[in-house]
Write a structure and sequence with these properties.
alpha+beta; Double Stranded RNA Binding Domain; DNA polymerase, domain 1; hpI Integrase, Chain A; 4-stranded antiparallel beta sheet; 3-stranded antiparallel beta sheet; 7 strands
Length: about 425
């Protein structure tokens, strides 16, 4: 017959005195208070493990852990046993998880994420990302275990950036946080990514597109460029930008060694040799891979004229006062302003890209992939990007660039729509008939 156990009381626990040998005061259901000869009183729990072995757990010392709290610990252990879980093993795993969580602080995981991403980033971009995290994220989140972070915690540094009206920074920080915690999920540090709920939590500034003239105003633009009375090399830079519609840095840092006159091809490298004292001079093609620019007959003639002026230098369009430095990033836009255009409302150098792209699409001649490749746009679909990167569409793009140069010449006399120019018939003498054939 099982022995009846009288439950303990707080007075009885408090009154228990040490003896020559350790002894136990039982509360029932495996819980007892071990009174040691030293005077220390410790709560213990005796139980049978799911595999049949005997188990003995230590809950804590009395009176720091009172009778009521000890009984709650016993109830939790009995509930685990009812589910077939060993309470000792469960406690060990919980402790290990707590230690791991403490080690996986936001800053530690963020630096690991940054190191992995930096392998595919350009150095200056990696440095910018790290600087932003150190300035905006680490002070607020760096010491916190990622497992403890809630949406409200992650939102705090974003709102701080928003209050400073640095909306672009706030958007970038949200992207970084999402990537960091996504990696934490992938590594099993956390179960879900709370950053997924940050989407739309901060204000965004309306995207300001670069101004571009409607194609109907091409005759006016071409006339003003031809009549430009400023520096000759500046006029040539504007004309060349319009012919090849590349980005400002791709033009400014261009070297003569990149031009293959025999093949009528300009290869913009992914990265260029640095120019001492010139910021960002290593910039090449924006997408980080070499970009091929077919050169029309008109572009080659113009480059030959430029070569008469700067062919003895490394840079195609050098600075007026120091030939080893590139022209200013404001040169093309300053020339457009001198021609009478508002570069914030009418047209800017970058707007030439939009004008060319619009004409190429409206012509109905060229495939989407060829146009996108010529514009050096980043394909957002990963599978398509892999194919388009390999498929240069170079022959179609040669025809395309020649068509655009011919179209500009045609618009010098009178405007014609891209579609009409592409459907003039074989006697028109433009490359449209070759493409259609």
């Amino acid at each position: 017959m099982a022995r009846t156990v009288t439950p303990l009381t707080d007075p009885k626990c408090e009154a228990a005195k040490p003896r020559a040998k350790d002894y136990k005061l039982f509360d029932g259901q495996g819980l007892f208070l071990l009174v040691k000869a030293s005077g220390v009183k410790t709560w213990r729990f005796k139980f049978t493990r799911p595999d049949g072995r005997e188990g003995l757990a230590t809950f804590g010392n009395y009176p720091a852990l009172g009778l009521k709290a000890a009984r709650e610990r016993r109830a939790e252990a009995l509930e685990l046993l009812a589910q077939g879980i060993d309470p000792i093993e469960h406690a060990r795993q919980a402790k290990a998880s707590a230690v791991a969580a403490a080690a996986h602080t936001f800053e530690a995981v963020a630096r690991e994420w940054h190191a992995a991403c930096a392998l595919k980033w350009k150095p200056h971009h990696a440095a910018t990302v790290l600087r932003r995290m150190e300035s905006h994220l680490f002070p607020a989140l760096g010491a916190r275990p990622v497992a403890d972070l809630k949406v409200r915690d992650l939102l705090a540094p974003l709102k701080a950036a928003e209050r400073r009206d640095t909306l672009e920074t706030a958007s970038r920080l949200r992207q970084y946080i999402a990537g960091i915690l996504r990696m934490a999920v992938q590594h099993g540090i956390i179960e879900t990514n709370p950053a997924s709920d940050l989407q739309g939590a901060t204000a965004t500034r309306k995207t300001a597109h670069r101004p571009a003239l409607p194609l109907e105003r091409l005759p006016e633009l071409l006339a003003r460029v031809d009549a430009y009375s400023g520096r000759q090399l500046t006029r040539m830079a504007v004309q060349f930008t319009l012919l090849v519609f590349i980005r400002s840095s791709e033009l400014r840092f261009a070297r003569w060694e990149e031009i293959d006159f025999d093949r009528a091809l300009w290869t913009i490298p992914a990265e260029r040799p640095p120019i001492e004292g010139v910021k960002h001079s290593t910039r090449g093609a924006k997408m980080g891979t070499p970009h091929l620019v077919p050169l029309s007959r008109q572009a080659l003639v113009l480059l030959e004229q430029v070569r008469q002026l700067t062919g003895r230098f490394d840079l195609i369009f050098p600075n007026d006062h120091a030939h080893w430095k590139p022209m200013s990033e404001n040169t093309v836009n300053a020339a457009l302003r001198r021609m009478g255009y508002d570069t914030k409302a009418d047209v800017c150098g970058h707007g030439f890209r939009a004008m060319a792209c619009s004409a190429l699409v409206e012509s109905g001649l060229w495939s989407r992939d060829a146009v996108e490749r010529q514009m050096s746009h980043q394909e957002r679909n990963g599978v398509r990007a892999a194919y388009i990167h390999k498929a240069e569409h170079i022959e179609e793009r040669r025809l395309m660039c020649q068509w655009w140069a011919d179209y500009l010449d045609a618009c010098r006399e009178q405007f014609t729509s891209p579609f009409d120019f592409s459907n003039r018939g074989e006697e028109a003498g433009n490359v449209a008939r070759i493409k259609r054939a």
